[in-house]
Amino acid sequence: MTTPAPTVEIVEVAPRDGLQNEARVLPTPVKAELVRRSLDAGVRRIEVTAFARPDRVPQMADAEALMAEVRDDPRLSAIGLVLNRRGLDRAIAAGCDEVTVVVVSSEGLALRNQGVGTYEQVAAWHAIAPVAREAGLRTSVILAAAFGCPFDGEVPVGRVLDVAKAVLDDAPDELAIADTIGVGVPGQVVDLVSGLVDLAPQMPLRAHFHNTRNTGYANAIAAVQSGVSVLDASAGGIGGCPFAPGATGNVATEDLLYLLHRSGYTTGVDPQTVAATGQWISDQLGLAQAPAQLGRAGWFPAPQR
Q1: Residue 241 designated active-site
Q2: Out of 57, 146, 183, 241, which one is annotated catalytic?
């Protein structure tokens, strides 16, 4: 009897984390097309937008308009990123299926990203959680800067686990860790994921990596080998964090799919379709080429003609 291949779920974040750090602000119909192309590739959970202040993140100023264009697609589980109760109310009214709440693990980035400290953000999560559940939304909390901070430096595993414990007092449906500035290495990933598994053995874990220092893909494979079942990625490898100096792009969805599929994992997502989308969205942004590699290098072995 053949053992089925292990499955990793992909969350496409290009419409939000991909676009929020790009200089060119795309029109709403182009963003909607990015969502539809991702659905066509087989992705089902998509971080569509963020419900943030337009003066702080102008790329997300059309959150409600974008949701109105895509929310009726039956294939889509639409994720909205929210920072506070006002953001949650907007996400509910816009028709999101899920919300991701950000809690920054380091005090320095917490203050610069949201204007309040880490544990004030934890308190915001506790205020959001019952309202989101009452509205029927699935919830995720993402522990940002879990591997390092541009202002505080190293972020110890113990600090992240303490923040996770505080979050888990009102447990989300999913807990995520993010290498917001792309400084982590696989050993850190193993230590942190193992700590989270010990802390909450039944909690589904998700990870979000940036490839700033070319460690994002190694970190991703270390994460799934350690107990993470969901990975974020951005078509074309576009994006980053506008509040973290030097934070370059996310891991590219198509390149991550190559790594996972060739390593024996299944995702239900077609890498070639994503690669074409990565090239297309990079063109829309006026980039000379997509940061991703697969669209240029092609699959191996090459498909038989």
Answers
A1: yes
A2: 241
